[in-house]
Structure formats: structure tokens, C-alpha cells
Amino acid sequence: MVSAELVGNAVAGLIYVELALAVIIPAIYVAAPGLARYVQALTGVAVLAFLIASAATVYYVFSYGNLTTANNMIVHDKLSSVMLLGAAIAAALAYIQAYYKAEEWPTHPGYYGLLPLTLFGTFFLMGSLSPLLILASWLVLSVATYIITGLPGDRNSVAAAVRYIYVGTLATLFMAAWIAAFYAGLRPPLALEALAIVAIMASIGFKLGAFPFHWWVPNVYGRADGRAIAIVAGVAKLAFLGLLVRLVYTLSGGLTPFEADALALLLAASAVVTMTLGNLSALNTGDLRAMLAYSSIAQTGYLLVGMVAVANLVSAGVNPTIALAGIGLQAVAYAVAKAPLFSLAAETEGRVKGILKGDWASAVSVAILLASLLGVPPLIGFWGKLYMFLPATSYSSILVLIALVNSGVSSVYYIRFLRDAFDEADEAPSITEESRYVLVLAALVTLLLGLAAPLVVNSFF
Predict the structure, then answer these.
(1) Spatial separation of the C-alpha atoms in residues 370 and 10, rounded to whole Å
(2) What are phi and psi of 63, to 5 degrees?
(3) DSSP for residue 130
(4) Do the beta carbons of residue 276 and residue 302 sit within 8 Å?
(5) Packing angle between helix 433-460 and helix 360-374, nearest 10 degrees?
(6) How far is CA 229 from CA 43, 98, 139, 292, 380, in A?
(7) Which of 364, 381, 363, 361 is nearest to 372 (CA)?
(8) Going by C-beta distance under 8 Å and a sequence separation of 6 or more, which residues neighbour residue 163?
(9) Plot region of 92 (φ>0 → left; ψ -120 to 50 → alpha; else → beta)
(10) In sequence order, which residues have a C-beta less than 8 Å from that of residue 375 and are 6 or more positions away?
């Protein structure tokens, strides 16, 4: 067995490689333009380094316990390590799918430099313990994704980036309010503490697209170039999700019974409206980009159900491990499916009709990814929903029933999409070879992770 110290040092070294490349890549364009042809390869090195670091983090955590780095200010546990691996896989898929197209963007140097910075911020935000480090990581990740959203340069992407910046600024203000309350020591009075909790929940709710902070998602996810959104939705979103789970877990253990019940009720209400609104909106669109955007809102609602289970179990003094495992698996299922699907939507410009006609490799792969989001066994999305919904019944069977009904509703627009994708079309958009390979790879990963999921859950205990 490899020593714990060696693995821990390797992870730390690989993560700082991300930061180094985030500085080196822009410097190459300025100081040595003749070396610019190597920049794509350097970005690939950054993605590969992050993938290896994430896999090593999973190995370390499941073998030795929590991974601690950065003078004990960063701690990765089993949940965050699994989500980190999901973000790394999504980043790799998005990078491959955008490999050739990104070169055509007028500001493509920014993409190659900001992707490593996004990965660096993801690692730190998921594991941050200090409120100031959370804010610093939050700002790094937020600014990087704002710019990435607008990098394709088309009118829709630029407009989406402006909207995203506006929403992100509001979220950051809420985050700053929470940190100010934290350092002011606002335990009494209760009203101020409640305000601080609402502020942090609102800030992350904006980033995740949870009700009532969901309104920006269709205008950003549904309009910007999907190759850029693959990073925002498949990588950055998992970092913010990981932060929310950690906060819910921590807060629930220190609240009074009344406060804990209020927190669980707040999460449950948001979950119900978020997934219902997302699914009903997806039913009313025939555009692939819009469908994926609304579906992302619905997926956030399902994840909130898992957080309700965590809040309820922790406040009752019960170990929430099974709910945490479910959230981790569902987050991975979401990231691995959404990254290639958003990139596919960019290639087809949102058109659906005929895109999979005669392309059985892509067709089967897309069907597997959608089935995972739907929760069909034995795919990883099934295990994620199973282990989130089961413990949530201890809080409310009605909440779980609503979640199951919503999952059924989502099957309608997923099946409709597949039907339309197989229809004859006069001029169906073609799918590039790299997209076909990525879709097949994502489907295989989804299937393999689904088969391994029960073992992963057992290892959580």
C-alpha cells in the first residue's frame, strides 16, 4: 500500500500545478507567443493532473481518512472526494469535446488559462473550513466561470455572461454578509443568527439555481455556448454543492430543535418548488439547450431532498452517512451526464430533430446518460436517488413521493427528446467525432460507476 504521506503530498503538488499553469499559460501568450501552439497541451496537462489528484484524493480518504492540506485549512472527506472526482471527470469530458472548437473563439487564450484556475478553485472551495478561505475560493471560482461563460464571443454567450455576473454579484454579497456575521460572533440575538444562515443559504442557492434564485439559469445555461456551460454546470456547480452540504451538516448539529426544524423545512420547500418548476418548464420547450437548463434546475431540487435528509438526521443525532453517499453519487451522475450533453447542445445549436438518426453509438450513449439522470437501475443516477430518497422518508414521505412523481414527469421530456432525435430531418446537424467519443466514454463511465456504486456506499460506513 502506498504511504499516506506520499499520496497527500502528491495531491497537494498536483493541485498547485493547476495554479502554476493558470499563471504560465497567459504569460506564454504575452512573453513567448511562439510557444502558443503548446498551450492546448498544457491545459490538457492541467486537466489530467486534476483528474489524477481527484482519484488520489478518493484513494487517500477511503484508505486513511480525511485528507488535510494547506495548513489544515482544507479538509476533504469521503463525500467531497467523490464529488471532486465527478467534477474532474466532467472537466476532462468538457475539455475533449471543446478541444477543436475552442480554438475558434476570439478569446480562446482565456479559456486555456482559466480552466486550470477553475479546477484549482474547485478543489479549495469543496474542502475549505475557514470562512475567509471559502470567500477567497468562491471569488476565484466565480470570476473564472463568469469569464469562461462569455469567452465564445457570440452575442448570446456575452449576454449570458453579463447575467451570470449580475447574479454572481448578488450571491457574493450574501456570502460576505454571512462572513461578517460569523466574525462578529452573532450567536445572540437569534434574529441576527437566522439572518446569517439565510444569507449563506441564499448565496449558494443562487449558484445552484435553487428556488427562488433559479430565474437566471435558463438565460445562462440555455443561451451561452454549451461547451463553456459544461464547465460551469459540470464542474463549478459541484464545488458550490459541496460547500452547501458541508454547511448544512455543520449547522444542523449546532442548532436548537426549533432552528433545525426550520432549516429542514426551508430546504424541503425549496426542493419541492425547484424540482417541480424545473420539470414543468422543461415539458414546454423543444430546444435542447433550454431542456437541459430546466432539467438542471430539477436536478438541484432532487439534491436538496438529500440535504433535507442530512439536516433531519443530524439534528436527531443519527449518522447521515447514507444520505451523504446518495448526494455524492447523484452529484457525480449529474456532472458526468450534463457536461457532454451541454456540449452536444452547442454543436446542434439546440436543435433536436434527427440528430441521432443513424448514429447508434451516440444514440445509445445519450440514452444511457438521460436514463442515469432519470434514475434507471443499475446506472449511477439510480443509486444516487435511492440513497437520497430513502433516508428522506424519515422526514416526510410526502416529500419523497413528490420527488418520485417529478422523476416520472422528467421521463416525458427525456423520451420526447429521444423520439425527436430519431425522426427524419431535412438538414439534421452532424455530431463531430470527438463528441461521439466523449458521449460513449461518458456512458461507459456512468454504467461502470453504477455497477460500483453499492461498493462505494458500503465504504462510506
Answers:
(1) 35
(2) -100, -40
(3) S
(4) no
(5) 30
(6) 18, 11, 18, 11, 22
(7) 381
(8) 216, 219, 220
(9) alpha
(10) 381, 382, 384, 385, 386, 407
Rounded to whole angstroms, the Cα distance separating 287 from 283 reads 10
Print burial letters for 22-39: b (CB count within 10 Å at least 16), e (below 16).
Answer: bebbbebbeeeeeeeeeb
* Tens digit of each residue's pLDDT, the chain (461 residues): 667 778 778 888 888 888 888 888 888 877 776 666 777 888 889 999 999 999 999 999 998 888 888 788 888 999 999 999 999 999 999 998 888 787 777 777 788 888 999 999 999 999 888 888 888 898 899 999 998 888 887 888 888 888 888 888 888 887 777 777 666 655 544 555 666 677 778 888 888 888 888 888 888 888 888 888 999 898 999 999 999 999 888 888 777 777 788 888 989 999 999 999 999 999 888 788 888 999 999 999 999 999 999 999 988 888 898 999 999 999 999 999 999 998 888 887 766 677 677 677 878 888 899 899 988 888 999 999 999 999 999 998 999 999 999 999 998 888 888 887 777 666 666 777 888 898 999 999 999 999 988 888 887 76
Give the span between the Cα atoms of 14 and 126, in whole angstroms: 16
Q: Is 76 helix (H, G, I), strand (E, B) or coil?
A: strand
Which phi and psi (to 5°) does residue 67 adopt? -95, 125
- Residue from 82, 110, 83, 86 nearest 98 by CA: 110
CA distance to 77, 115, 123, 270, per residue, from 228 (Å): 29, 10, 19, 27
| 129, 77 contact by CB (below 8 A) | no
DSSP state of 67: E
CA nearest neighbour of 101 among 344, 326, 292: 344
User: Measured between alpha carbons, how far is 460 from 321 in angstroms, rounded to an integer?
Assistant: 7
For 18, the grid coordinates are 493547476
pTM above 0.85, yes or no: yes
- C-alpha cell read off for 95: 475539455
Provide the β-strand partners of residue 68: 75
* Cα–Cα distance for residue pair 134/129, rounded to 1 Å: 7
> What residue spans define the domains of the chain?
4-460
